Each structure stands twice: as structure tokens, then as C-alpha cells.
Amino acid sequence: MVTGPGRNRRRLSGDDDAARGEQEAKVSRKDEDHPASGLQENAPGDVVVLSQGDRTLVILYGDVDVRVSEDLEYAGRFSIDAGRCTVMDVRQVTMMDSVGVSFVVRLAAGLRAAGTELLLQGPSRRVSELISLVGANELTRWLPEQTPAAAAVVERS
Amino acid sequence: MSAAVLTEGRPPSGFWAQRLDWEIDSFGSSVEARTQARDAVAAAGESVHPAHPSGHVFSAASERVELTMGELTVNGLRHGGPPVTASLSRGTQGWLLVVTDQAADRVPVPPGTDLTAVGGLGLRLVLSMAVEVGWCVEEDRKLVWALVADAPSPGLVHRLDQAVS
């Protein structure tokens, strides 16, 4: 399990990595940062990276924009270095600018160059439209839709 | 069905009523500007154009204005340096966004074809969101402007139709 140094870093529940196992990882949020409906309006987003078996899981939250560019750089470097199929969960993205789109595109291209691929877990109309607008549909593949992660439980894909 | 083209020239003439303006010195104030711009357009423009039948996120003028304002102001901070100013005006042709910075010698260039190159995607998105985009130099400051229409262009809707998810 790897997480970057974001300001609103979510904490992983459970006692340790072994307790979490490879079947699932639970992500909990700080209630004071993200009351009721989730993320505070205008708060910077977040990125969490998990190693899950033979895959890397990248979860994006909130406003994925220039304010989290360092976190995205870190996450991208880790994912490409891991060289495994990477699933990016974009269901909780509320806003994405070109920094976020560039992260998706460059990660997809990097993984492809490494002989693997980036799979996107939606739905996210916003993200899919942005990817389409920059002409990067061919670089990514979308997984079938899953039940929204209301309980913040990330199932192993 | 292509996007707008970056041109050198002043913003389109006509009647423009300035609604909001900002002085931007950080990414945080860029976020404030884009959010306030989105809210202003949602409150005003979309009372006339409530929702495009396509249902696409970026068929809404408020979403296009928000993204455009964010990209232009961040570009101003990154490539021009603070102080960056921004304004949002309303006219008969839609919404005019003007962002200025002090780097008059660093003019915007059209994005290349390599999607993985560092930089360029922001302007690419702006060219998708706006119907006209341009830049000029006035009084030693660079102005970058974008005209965002109330309704999405047929070209934009066509490209949004290609979205996969």
C-alpha cells in the first residue's frame, strides 16, 4: 500500500497491511474535512495508490487539479515503476483540470509502453468527456460500472 | 467539427458588461475565480439555457466557463507570473473571459499533437470549451481571452458524444 503526501490524505483503516490483506482495502475519510456529502467544496482533491495483488489501484477524489499535481506525479511514477495493470477509480472526482487529464493520459501511455494498460473505473461522465475532448479515448479502457463506493469500500477488481 | 483556433488579436468587439474581476496570485485564488465564474454563469446564463438535451457535463456553459477560467489563470500564474488579473463579462455572444499577465514576451502557442508532452493540454481544453480564443499585448501586458457561448457548438457536442463511459 502506498499513499502520496496529499494535504487531505485519507487514512486507511485496519491495523496493518497484513490485516487488510490483498482482497480489499478500506478507505476512511476525515469527517471534519469532508462532512456529510463527502468532499468540502473547493478543497483540493486527493489521490491514493494501493497495491492489490497483480494490480495497482489508483483512487482519485474530489477536485483533481493543479493543487495536487505533486501527488499525481508521485502516484504516476509509482504506478509506472510497478509495471502492472493499473485500475484508476474516478467515481469520486468532482472536478478535473488539464493537470488531472494529463495525469490520466501520461499514465496510460507509460503503462502501455511498459506492456500493460490503464483501466478506468467509472462512471464519471466528466472524466470520460475530458478524455474524449483531448483525443485520448484510444489510450484507455473503461471497466463495467460498479455500485458507487458509498461505503468507501474498494473491492478488488 | 474542429475546436476553436488560437488567434492573435483583441477580444471580439461588441457590448460587454463586466460582471466579475479578480486579481490572482496563487492557485487558491485561481480556484476561487473559476468557482465564482461558474456560479455567476449558472445563475445568469443557464436561466436562459437551462440544460442542453445532450446531457453532457460540458454542454453547460457554467462548466465550460469554470474550466476555461481555471486553465487560463493557472497558465497566467505558471508562464506569466503574478499578478494575474481575470475578468468575466456578459455579452450578446456569450461569456468573455480575459486573463492578463506581465509576460508580454511569452505568447501562447497552439498545442502540439503529442498528448503526453508536458503542457499543452490546458490550452487544448480551452480551445474545446470556447468558440473563439485569442491573445494580444496591451500596455506591456499580455491578454489571453476566450469567448464561451451559452449553448455548446455542434462540434463540441459531437466530440462529447464520443465519450466512452
Automatic annotation (TrEMBL), chain A:
Coiled coil: none annotated. Residues 12-35 have a biased composition (Basic and acidic residues). Residues 1-45 are annotated as: Disordered. Residues 45-157 form the STAS domain. InterPro entries: MlaB-like_STAS (IPR058548), STAS_dom (IPR002645), STAS_dom_sf (IPR036513). This is STAS domain-containing protein. It comes from Kineosporia mesophila.
From TrEMBL, chain B:
Coiled coil: none annotated. Transmembrane segments: none annotated. InterPro entries: Anti-sigma-factor_SerPK (IPR050267), HATPase_C_sf (IPR036890). It comes from the Bacteria. This is Anti-sigma regulatory factor (Ser/Thr protein kinase).
